């Protein structure tokens, strides 16, 4: 009989060992899947995990792209993690990301073609406010009417997607674009551009913002009363109430922060890597960030690493897809496996496996 | 200040990339990359692009190597995919969706020696050409069949997004249907999606339940055909691919995107060193738009449809020939006048007779 | 504009068809959540059911075999979720999302040779003269067997949760797993069973999409139905009867907005397409404002259980 026994404290060794074990297990299971598809498993795994980082042909370009891909994931996941720790479930970051991008782009395009230094900061502000306001809808409904925040935030994603589509063919459509959908290109308008800050690093303002967010979140969680309240509310809601934590304010704070960061991610993406509002501007960062938050164990530093790992599987997956002809679906399944294994081996951090008879408790 | 940093980084970035420009593929194979917006198994738009890729391989055999990437999101991801393809030694890259326009231009700047072909866009550069198909020619042929075949005089149209391509298709089929049957009426449902089978099925059912006995669609799934088959006495047309599994009825004909002749032509040009950036907008004549086999309609309808097809192909007939008015009654084209390409490319109005507003 | 072209009979009949996948998936998730487990992988289980059912129906020529296979496929993926969350104590929200991601990927892989194929038809049941009655003939007696099955299932789930001893045990597990454990109830076993049932129902819902409602196989064809099913469970404040109401309401709004468009009603179309979501939110707010809605949620929902606690 195999049994689990709770450790007195999380195992330090497994805290680091578990993710490595998970990656190793994924390579084995994924390799079997690639082999079943008739592809060379070793080449596939190497292309996904090694080539984006070290292949002489690609690495100089792909390595900085890790930051481009990880930036929005980390930014959004950091905000979400605060809420998840407090037991506040915002799974609508995708919508907050869209609305942030729409507000930011709208604020900038209203001033087009003026050239001024304040346009970009204004857009960033508008984007942050937009994301914040969109997140406030489920938060206020939760605190005022006790409406389930998981669902309202999720349903608002679909509403935001409809808004995006109608903005791309309507108000934000590029008047010089011959009637095609999509806004003007913001990364090509000097006043709104969010370019690579240091050549060859991939770092744009969104990556900087992500790093700042990680540091701030770390400080808030570990050195600040709000962080203490967040953790307390998540672990022991009753105790939190006795300690004077105001649950409504906590909900507003967690949603507000997450919405703000998601909105920022949206505006940095639309002014930088994406460049414009299009019908399908959003590519699922808001949902992937939820996974990143959990992979990082809801810890800001862990989220940073998890975001980079996720980005690696995306970029490596793309390489594997066109270099080796592996279907995108297999890459998706591979990412799913990686998550399954990471979640599965995490048990080793908090529990010890005992083989034999369990003691009577 | 901001501008200088921006330019500075761009130049530096270009310099950095110049270092990693790979030598062109050691062997003399021409490497061709394809960037798709959907999965190759979508049975419609991307499927046809991939079929053309396979024909390129078949045509050139050992002289060509093709790579592709499916389901590429528009925006930053597209630029990365194209850059990585160029780094891997691609000589020619086909970007097959409108949303890839700016990423294609950006990537092309970084790789002046790689040729790019962007579908349905309007931005070109020395090493970026554009190509598109005059689907509206095909829609005129289908519109004629639709007008002849309807008994309820109600034709349902499932539209995706209100963009010129879609509006052009509605107008072209309406004009043709109206010529064939002056009493015809179009009911248009905007699905606000390219691809959502369940929603397309529901839209088709709603149209059929309200009396439409012909369904035209500008979305990519066969769901409307299934709805038509279930209802009985309703016909539909294949979109993007032949949708032959619903032959001979309810699918009575189709518009097929046939990119193969163009792709083979362009690959050949790269091999010969004669490739130049240009703008191609081909229709039925050069074979980019094909009308799928016409089935289960009376012989005279079939003959008329084929005649329209052949006259369009020969350049004797233009689907937008005056007299034509805009929806508000103002004059658009005089007797005998044909529409110019600029107006067609930016079409944002209905022609006279269509009801309802274009969502905006 | 001519609203008379919209036939209420056909409208109701097609909203029933449009709602059935949602109803099936939501009923499964209801039982799962009643047992105290939050499985956000409904979308993934639905689409695995959609391809599993489609493939088997095409290979065997029997839609019934397809539906059975869909239930098995959904339950199999759900069991992965179950093992991770019940035995390995992984976080349910993250595992659920991973289930969806994996399901979408694996279904596309499995389905690569099945696009562009017509599945065998699932006909409407022929109930003789009953089908010829006005209105009720089409609305009540004019459907395929899955629609009736889903209605029957609604009743069965209601009966199970509220009237049976096993249902009482399941609810006890969902309300307070520690107390249930102390009473000698096998918490993990019951939850695993509920999770598998939820997966099977989601699989059936997916298969209804690919075999009846659309019917065809295409990658990503569920396009968000699983998430709506989750919303419906909360909307229903965890009651089987209201799940039925919620599913039909959502399906109804979707079908109605397309019908209004087809009838030429001058409404801003781009806002119409968001109406089902906005209306669902509005109803959620109304329900929760009138009575403390969240109080109806199982108390242990989403929490891991380990006997050492």
UniProtKB/TrEMBL annotation, chain A:
One of its GO terms (molecular function) is transmembrane transporter activity. Signal peptide: none annotated. InterPro entries: ABC_transp_permease. GO terms for cellular component: plasma membrane. Pfam families: BPD_transp_2 (PF02653). Coiled coil: none annotated. The keyword Transmembrane applies. Keywords: Cell membrane, Membrane, Transmembrane, Transmembrane helix. The chain crosses the membrane at residues 68-88, 95-112, 118-141, 150-172, 202-221, 250-268, 274-296, 303-323, 329-348. It is found in: Cell membrane. It is a multi-pass membrane protein. PANTHER family: ABC TRANSPORTER, PERMEASE PROTEIN, GUANOSINE ABC TRANSPORTER PERMEASE PROTEIN NUPP. This is Inner-membrane translocator. The lineage of its organism: Bacteria, Pseudomonadati, Pseudomonadota, Alphaproteobacteria, Rhodobacterales.
UniProtKB/TrEMBL annotation, chain B:
Residues 29-308 form the ABC transporter substrate-binding protein PnrA-like domain. Keywords: Signal. SUPFAM superfamilies: Periplasmic binding protein-like I. InterPro entries: ABC-Purine-Binding (IPR052910), Peripla_BP_I (IPR028082), PnrA-like (IPR003760). One of its GO terms (cellular component) is plasma membrane. Pfam families: Bmp (PF02608). Residues 1-25 form the signal peptide. The keyword Signal applies. This is Bmp family protein. It comes from Oceaniovalibus guishaninsula JLT2003.
From TrEMBL, chain C:
The keyword Nuclease does not apply. The keyword Transmembrane applies. GO terms for cellular component: plasma membrane. It is a multi-pass membrane protein. The chain crosses the membrane at residues 6-25, 37-58, 64-84, 96-115, 135-161, 188-209, 221-238, 245-265, 271-289. It is found in: Cell membrane. Its main location: membrane. One of its GO terms (molecular function) is transmembrane transporter activity. Pfam families: BPD_transp_2. Keywords: Cell membrane, Membrane, Transmembrane, Transmembrane helix. This is Sugar ABC transporter, permease protein.
């Amino acid at each position: 009989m195999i049994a689990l026994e709770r450790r007195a404290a999380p195992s330090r060794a497994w805290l680091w060992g578990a993710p490595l074990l998970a990656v190793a297990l994924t390579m084995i299971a994924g390799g079997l899947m690639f082999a079943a598809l008739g592809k060379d498993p070793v080449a596939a795994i190497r292309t996904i995990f090694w080539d984006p980082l070290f292949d002489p042909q690609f690495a100089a370009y792909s390595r900085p792209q890790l930051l481009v891909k990880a930036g929005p994931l980390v930014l959004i996941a950091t905000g979400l993690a605060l809420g998840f720790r407090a037991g506040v479930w915002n799974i609508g970051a995708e919508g907050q990301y869209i609305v942030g991008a729409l507000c930011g782009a709208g604020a900038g395009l209203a001033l087009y073609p003026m050239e001024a230094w304040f346009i970009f900061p204004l857009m960033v502000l508008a984007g942050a406010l937009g994301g914040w306001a969109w997140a406030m809808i489920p938060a206020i409904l939760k605190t005022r009417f006790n409406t389930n925040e998981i669902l309202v935030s999720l349903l608002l994603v679909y509403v935001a997607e409809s808004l995006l589509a109608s903005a791309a063919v309507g108000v934000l459509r590029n008047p010089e674009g011959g009637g095609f959908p999509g806004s003007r290109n913001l990364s090509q308008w000097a006043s709104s551009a969010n370019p690579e800050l240091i050549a060859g690093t991939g770092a744009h303002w969104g990556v900087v913002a992500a790093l700042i967010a990680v540091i701030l979140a770390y400080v808030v969680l570990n050195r600040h009363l709000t962080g203490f309240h967040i953790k307390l509310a998540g672990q022991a809601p009753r105790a939190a109430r006795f300690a004077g934590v105001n649950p409504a304010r906590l909900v507003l704070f967690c949603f507000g922060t997450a919405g703000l960061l998601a909105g920022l991610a949206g505006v940095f993406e639309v002014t930088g890597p994406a460049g414009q509002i299009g019908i399908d501007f959003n590519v699922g960062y808001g949902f992937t960030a939820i996974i990143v938050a959990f992979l990082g164990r809801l810890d800001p530093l862990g989220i940073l690493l998890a975001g980079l790992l996720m980005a690696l599987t995306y970029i490596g997956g793309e390489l594997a897809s066109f270099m080796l002809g592996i279907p995108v679906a297999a890459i998706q399944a591979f990412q799913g496996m990686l998550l399954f294994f990471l979640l599965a081996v995490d048990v080793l951090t908090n529990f010890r496996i005992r083989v034999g008879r369990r003691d009577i408790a | 200040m901001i501008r200088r940093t921006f330019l500075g980084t761009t130049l530096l970035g270009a310099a950095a990339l110049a270092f990693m420009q790979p030598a062109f593929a050691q062997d003399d194979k021409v490497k061709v990359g394809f960037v798709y917006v959907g999965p190759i198994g979508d049975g419609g738009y991307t499927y046809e692009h991939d079929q053309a890729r396979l024909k390129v391989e078949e045509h050139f055999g050992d002289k060509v190597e093709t790579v592709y990437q499916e389901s590429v999101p528009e925006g930053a991801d597209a630029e990365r995919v194209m850059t990585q393809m160029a780094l891997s030694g691609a000589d020619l890259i086909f970007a097959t969706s409108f949303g890839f326009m700016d990423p294609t231009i950006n990537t092309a700047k970084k790789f002046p020696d790689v040729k790019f072909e962007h579908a349905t866009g309007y931005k070109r550069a020395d090493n970026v050409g554009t190509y598109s198909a005059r689907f509206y020619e095909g829609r005129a042929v289908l519109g004629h069949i639709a007008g002849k075949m309807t008994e309820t005089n109600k034709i349902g149209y499932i539209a995706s997004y209100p963009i010129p391509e879609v509006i052009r298709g509605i107008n072209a089929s309406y004009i043709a249907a109206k010529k064939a049957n002056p009493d015809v009426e179009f009911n248009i449902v905007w699905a606000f999606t390219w691809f959502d089978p369940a929603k397309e099925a529901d839209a088709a059912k709603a149209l059929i339940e309200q009396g439409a006995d012909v369904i035209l669609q500008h979305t990519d799934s066969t769901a409307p055909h299934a709805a038509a088959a279930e209802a009985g006495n309703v016909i539909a047309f294949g979109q993007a691919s032949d949708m032959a599994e619903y032959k001979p009825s309810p699918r009575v004909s189709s518009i097929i995107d046939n990119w193969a002749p163009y792709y083979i032509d362009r690959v050949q040009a790269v091999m010969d060193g004669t490739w130049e950036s240009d703008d191609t907008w081909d229709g039925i004549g050069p074979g980019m738009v094909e009308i799928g086999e016409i089935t289960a309609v009376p012989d005279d309808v079939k003959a008329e449809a084929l005649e329209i097809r052949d006259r369009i192909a020969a350049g004797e007939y233009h689907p937008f020939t005056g007299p034509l008015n805009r929806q508000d009654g103002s004059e658009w084209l005089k007797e005998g006048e044909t529409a110019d390409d600029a107006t067609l490319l930016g079409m944002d109005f209905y022609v006279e007779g269509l009801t309802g507003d274009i969502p905006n | 504009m001519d609203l008379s072209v919209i036939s209420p009979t056909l409208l109701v009949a097609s909203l029933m068809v449009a709602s059935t996948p949602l109803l099936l998936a939501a009923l499964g998730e209801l039982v799962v959540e009643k047992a105290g487990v939050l499985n956000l992988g409904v979308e993934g289980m639905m689409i695995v059911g959609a391809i599993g059912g489609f493939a088997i129906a095409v290979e065997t020529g029997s839609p019934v075999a397809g539906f059975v296979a869909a239930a098995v496929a959904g339950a199999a993926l759900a069991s992965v979720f179950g093992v991770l969350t019940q035995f390995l104590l992984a976080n349910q929200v993250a595992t659920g999302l991973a289930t969806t991601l994996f399901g979408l990927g694996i279904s596309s892989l499995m389905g690569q040779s099945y696009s562009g194929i017509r599945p065998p038809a699932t006909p409407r049941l022929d109930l003789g003269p009953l089908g010829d009655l006005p209105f009720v003939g089409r609305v009540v007696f004019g459907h395929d067997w899955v629609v009736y099955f889903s209605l029957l299932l609604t009743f069965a789930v209601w009966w199970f949760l509220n009237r049976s001893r096993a249902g009482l045990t399941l609810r006890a597990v969902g309300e307070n797993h520690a107390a249930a454990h102390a009473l000698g109830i096998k918490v993990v076993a019951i939850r695993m069973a509920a999770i598998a049932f939820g997966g099977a129902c989601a699989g059936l819902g997916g298969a209804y999409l690919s075999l009846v409602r659309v019917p065809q196989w295409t990658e990503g064809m569920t396009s968000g139905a699983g998430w709506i099913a989750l919303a419906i469970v909360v909307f229903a404040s965890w009651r089987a009867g209201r799940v039925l109401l919620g599913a039909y309401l959502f399906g109804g709004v979707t079908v109605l907005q397309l019908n209004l468009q087809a009838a030429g009603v001058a409404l801003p179309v781009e806002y119409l397409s968001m109406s089902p979501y906005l209306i669902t939110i509005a109803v959620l707010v109304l329900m929760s404002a009138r009575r403390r809605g969240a109080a109806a949620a199982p108390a242990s929902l989403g929490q891991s259980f380990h006997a050492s606690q």
